[in-house]
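Two entries, shown back to back:
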Amino acid sequence: MEAREWQAAIDASVKFRYDENARPLTPLSIGTDVRIRDPKSKLWDRIGVVVGIGRYRSYRVKFANGSVLWRNRRLLRPMVAATRPIEDVIDQEAGSGIGDIWSDDSVPADGSPASSHPPPGSAINTSPPPLRRGERVRKRTVMFDV
């Protein structure tokens, strides 16, 4: 009996320490688009759709290739939809001077799609790259008074 109480006290203190830095993950619903983390490479490189909900924070996820796997909630992140269309973002950048290189002047007269690269000969950033090391002048090493 005494050992059980002692183990319960230890378990309570471990749970308390874990809960100090943990945050709860919101449950996912069926049909939610999610990113899946690969346990080996630690990259969020796969995309799927939640098709089932299991017990203890596990979800059945269907991938684009048709395979279906069970994944724990901590390996899933809901995909966030863009709040504004990309055209609005580009228009806003063009108005601020950031997107001046990508103006409509670069579209050819024949209506063919323009290249995603700036025209040759135009420099995006003409300033030199920042120095990566300090500018301290180093003294020459003198060995054996030679």
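entry 2 starts here
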Amino acid sequence: MEPNNVDGREIGRETAPGKGSNRVFSIEDGGTVARNSATEDEKTAAWKKFLKHLGPGFLVSLAYLDPGNLETDLQAGANHKYELLWVILIGLAFALIIQSLAANLGVTTGKHLAELCKAEYPMFVKYCLWLLAEAAVIAADIPEVIGTAFALNILFKIPVWAGVLMTGCSTLLLLGLQRFGVRKLELLVSVLVFILAGCYFGEMSYVKPPASEVMKGLFVPRLKGNGATADAIALLGALIMPHNLFLHSALVLSRKTPASVKGINNVLGKSSSIVYAIALLASGQSSAITGTYAGQYIMQGFLDLKMKRWLRNLMTRSIAITPSLIVSIIGGSSGAGRLIIIASMILSFELPFSLIPLLKFSSSRTKMGPHKNSIYIIIASWILGSGIIGINIYYLSTGFVGWIIHSSLPKAATVFIGMLVFPLMAAYIVSVIYLVFRKDKTITFIDTSNTTEIQLEKGMTHSNRDRENEAVPYREDLADIPLPE
């Protein structure tokens, strides 16, 4: 660049790289050039921050791509065709809201959901919530383990029970990739997700569902036919998993950042069943990894257990695959397939015990300060949450009463079962009411506005101070479980 003088103003001539033309600019333009350069740097930094979160983002997304979703979706489609698509649409919208609330909770408080539950609730309630959270991890892991076993059976004719054991061992081996850097494991999970997506679009191009029926199913709510309510509950349970709320609220703390198989083979044909099996294999194996992560965070958050990573992985895997192994040995493929639907329904029934604390904590000024949910988010989330809880209670009460009325068991046996189940139903309802109306007592938000003068004396500007206050409090203890910087 060569300086010149034109009309008393100093100018410069700059040759653009790779081009033959020159650009003349005045000193006044210097600010614009600097601003443009700064803007480009900010865009580059923003992309780096975005890419930095892709790994955890893929891990969280697997809760919506796991074999539980595949199996319950196929079962609901076989029973009701496209009539329950509206349940999936509402469930996805609600899932987006609560996952963002979980992330915001972790970012603002510096603690994940399990740790906040431990700090907030009395000992008895804390341990009850821990047991329910562990049960949710097991229920979520059942479809993942059995789904992978089904895929191995389709592809290689391996017995389902043997596939369950292989799935548990392979998950532990894949988790061992953490020794070579967590990015390697995140890359593997991302590849598996893309394999699943490719298989899905391949199947969709083969099936070619009618657009008119799909649109009607998405936007016209219906619950017709036998088992429609049960299938809707299973869909919601498979889609909005309780353990994923614990997982997402913890993953954001690990980064230094600012603020039915037979039916498939009748329907899709041999080649398509292989594609489905590949998708199921990718889905089940990757989802099993995230299930193990969630179990680790829950155990660490509620109990504050300090143990080696391999021991945590082994404990979580062993607890999770035991029910799947027992059922696959006793009931075979048909029993394992029914267990997937049952597990999805259990997840829906357990959802209030993680959802209600999340909604209350993220809407509490004592927990979030000025970052608490807006009134619109509070209203929308509680309406959707109340709808899901209401459907669960309605199905529990009407379904069990209907079973008692039409039961073929001896009258004495029916009365005995009723004496056992009705108190459990009452306890379920009372527990939900307790969580909803109990006032928060623990304060986790600390107002740092009074530290302005001290920080200014240290030479910290207002913008720097704001960035410090808004930064995610990086957790060294969570870096080992399992996403270090």
